[in-house]
Amino acid sequence: MKKVVFIVHSLHGGGTQGYVRSLANYFYEQGNQVAIIVLSNNQEKVPDDLLVPAFFLPKALARKKLIERFLALIEMHFLNGVDAFFANSFDAYKLLSVQKRIPNDKQFYVVHADYSTMRYSFYTPFKNMERTFKYRRLFNKKNIIVNSDGVKESLTKKLGIKPKSMSVIFPPINCDLVKTMATEKLTMALPEEYLVALGRLSEGKRVYLAVELLKYLPNSFHLLVIGDGDQLPNIKKRVQSERLESRVHFLGWQPNPYPILRNAKALVSMSESEGFSLVVAEALLLGVASLAVNSAGPQTILGEKFPKLIFEENKTMLKEMAETIKHLPLYPEQYYESYAETFDISHAYKKYYALLG
Fold first, then answer.
1. SS3 of 221, please?
2. Is 297 helix (H, G, I), strand (E, B) or coil?
3. Within 58-124, where are the H helices?
4. 175-342: same fold as 3-172+344-355?
5. Cα(139)–Cα(330) distance, rounded to whole angstroms?
């Protein structure tokens, strides 16, 4: 039995949050002792499917106080020490990096995004260079886990990071659980033909592009937006400006989005940068085509088997996506499903466990 702690910024949503929930539950089911520390200024409702204790730590606390509270929680829950800490967000990385009492060989930084491609228009070249040095200070000589070969190359070659160790572990999908949850009866009426945009509504997810995509499709197509985030007001404004209110539906965060996803025409991922994109793989598992803007994550999942579902970002991208959607399915549903099963959580668990010594 091992004792492990996951640190994350939220328990709700897909992506990183879903990754942590699934892996923490699976560790627990294999007989390990597990806890999650959530760095959030808001007390969230703990998801019903979470099997392990979650402790909320306000990230707004002063640094010294935050460290003291963090260590107190660990000592209270784990009497004889912890075998590994897995940090899963930028705030978690910063918290773990200043823990002098935790040996380096027990600290793991799980990187979910391709930071080299994150460049914002309001950042000057000097500011972007400053960010690069910040990543180097944070990740150099650390044990890093990345979720794709593309992110590994990005960190080491583009950002010049020199880690103590680096492991590539694809994000886990609990295939049996996802398939079971997808069979639950829908409690809402849905359009006959619809696309799904699923995930946290943050700036980098660029859901507004999925809204614009509708302009190139027949009026029978709708867009279901599943998730919450700080960009929700801006996305709604875009919907209004494009006069698409009757075709875009905001469903909020859904504890079980899989019955909705299973019946979709396609999933659309417009992210500026993705380390792996768990939701793309989950859609494939349910036999649903996943269309994505090219970046490290989609390239890892779709590049070899489904290259027609990846799109280069240019002026004609949305038009090309729309034409592809009109001609779906390009591949048999069973082909999607069998390939996605190679990302089953059992494989990820074995690789994580091997890191614990």
1. strand
2. helix
3. 63-77, 90-97
4. yes
5. 41
> What is the second-level CATH architecture of the domain 3-172+344-355?
3-Layer(aba) Sandwich (3.40)
Residues forming a β-bridge with 269: 292
**Inter-residue contact 57 to 66 (CB < 8 Å):** yes
Report the percentage of the chain scoring pLDDT > 90: 63
Specify the range with the lowest mean pLDDT, choosing from 77-81, 94-98, 188-192: 77-81
| Alpha-helical runs (H) found in 1-62 | 15-29
Dihedral class, residue 277 (left if φ above 0, else alpha if ψ from -120 to 50, else beta): left
**Confidence (pTM):** 0.75
Query: How many residues comprise the chain?
Result: 357
- At the top level of CATH, the class of 175-342 is alpha beta
Sheet with 84-87: list strands edge to edge: 54-57, 33-39, 3-8, 84-87, 107-111, 143-146, 165-168
Structure tokens at 48: 């019903």
Residue 244 main-chain phi, psi, to 5 deg? -115, 20
Q: For residues 103 and 80, what is the distance between their CA atoms, to the nearest angstrom?
A: 15
Of the candidates 310, 314, 306, 316, the one whose C-alpha atom is nearest the C-alpha of residue 336 is: 306
The neighbour count for residue 102, using CB atoms within 10 Å, is 19
What pLDDT does residue 151 have? 87
The gap from C-alpha 82 to its chain's centroid, in whole angstroms, comes to: 25
What pLDDT sits at residue 122? 44
- Are the C-beta atoms of residues 261 and 267 closer than 8 Å to each other? yes
Q: How many Cβ atoms from other residues are within 10 Å of residue 34's Cβ?
A: 21
Could you give the C-alpha distances from 227 to 65, 142, 337, in angstroms and in order?
32, 32, 24
Which of these, 290, 356, 256, 273, lies nearest to 47 by C-alpha position?
Answer: 256
